Amino acid sequence: MKILVLGGTVFLSKAVTAEAVRRGHEVICGARGTSGGVPEGARLVQIDRDQPGALDQLADEQFDAVVDVSKYSVTWVRDALRAFGETTPHWTFVSSISVYADHATDELHPALEDDPDAEFTAERYGSVKVASENAVREAVGGKEFVVRAGLITGPGDPSDRFGYWPARLSKGGRVVVPDSPELGFQHIDVRDLARWIVFAAEERVTGTFDSTGPVMPFQMAIGEIAGATAPAGTQLVPVSEDVLKQLEINPWAGPRSLPLWLPRAWAGMVGRDVSPALANGLKPRPLAETALDSLEYERGLGLDRPRKAGLTEQEEQEILTAAS
């Protein structure tokens, strides 16, 4: 097959490209190229989707499948659909479980029309994804494969969220963990999601899927990561949500955070039913394997480097002192 990946230089789109090349497909990546190169065997066509007519240089190409990972712009999605939607037999759009305004009822955020001059904010993200999904279904209905991704983990993750845990646990000692026994955990290794996306293009799988792994208790997940990466004698120290809030520890991601911890009010984000995805070919690998490979990646970057997400040694000691 000849596949167009709109992206191809970072994390998921790069993993999709690498997997497609590995399986013998011809892959063209349309991207600025400022974030890095594409995997060996793929061809980069440098495009800036903010510029009018950015896709014109690909106008003479015919693709068997398109994979679009656009995060922030409905305009980008519509431009790609106008350029290739009519002639392409299979169309993957990578969306997000952030489309859900209410995880208990599956209610979606209202679709937000793209405003090129509007500053992107996290609050707009779910609504932009809803509008993008709608645009895909309107343009290529019946050919669309909509992937509502949750937490994507594994080597190459630019967010530093999941990688914090194998990196921190590998150092041993007393490790702060959230005391949230009711909290669940869901993730999908980037390589498994990439493999499924390429498989779906090959087999013409269509539909809309919550695309992450099965739910497990968060504490069990931390235990599995520790079992794979922590030295003997490592002590997990559960700290209550109240203490974490009092110390202004951020949930989920970012500086001064306990990554992947979610307060009770957000817990529904990690309770998605993924049985349809599993029934249609998604095959998650063991969490311990993802943890070990993520630790190797973290070591390559440097375990003591400044991080985008997680606690510094001083911040963790502050929590341990307050919780004692």
Structure description:
The protein is of the alpha/beta class and 324 residues long. The protein is built from 10 helices and 17 strands. It folds into 2 domains: 148 residues, Rossmann fold; 119 residues, no CATH class. A 7-stranded parallel β-sheet has the order 3-2-1-4-5-8-13, sandwiched between helices. The chain has a two-stranded antiparallel sheet with strand order 6-7. The chain has a two-stranded parallel ribbon with strand order 9-12.
Shape: globular
Kindly report the spatial arrangement of strands forming the biggest sheet: 3-2-1-4-5-8-13
Q: Which residue ranges are poorly predicted, with pLDDT under 50 across at least 5 consecutive positions?
A: none
Mean pLDDT: 95
CATH topology of the largest domain: Rossmann fold
Distance between the amino and carboxyl termini: 59 Å
Radius of gyration over C-alpha positions, nearest whole angstrom = 20 Å
The ordered string of helix (H) and strand (E) elements is EHEEEHEEEHEEHEEEHEEHEHEEHHH
* Gross CATH architecture of the largest domain: 3-Layer(aba) Sandwich
Question: Looking at this structure, what is the CATH superfamily of the largest domain?
Answer: NAD(P)-binding Rossmann-like Domain
Instruction: Classify the secondary structure makeup into a structural class.
Output: alpha/beta
Q: Domains counted in the coordinates: how many? A: 2
Report the CATH C-level class of the largest domain. Alpha Beta
DSSP, total strands: 17
